[in-house]
TrEMBL record:
It comes from the Eukaryota. This is RNase H type-1 domain-containing protein.
Amino acid sequence: MKCVPPTRSVVKINFDAAIDNHQSRSGSRIVARNAMREVLVSRSILHDDIGFVFAAKALVFSWAVQTGVEMGLLEDIIEGDSLSIIKKVSVKYML
């Protein structure tokens, strides 16, 4: 997928997660930017006992969606590198 810049009224929320399989830990990040690329929200979280990449990315994706809800956004772009997560949610909720 190609990165899409947000239009004037749209906020873009990027998410990602990384995993340390040996220690069953992961880290997640969410960054929300406006069309001028100004950072509106930035969150980084370290997790213990999440040793699966799919679980870590699903969790941070749900936080990205929740961040948009908390910001009161009517239109946003949620972007991450986990195509399997995005496809599963898109099909379930017909996004």
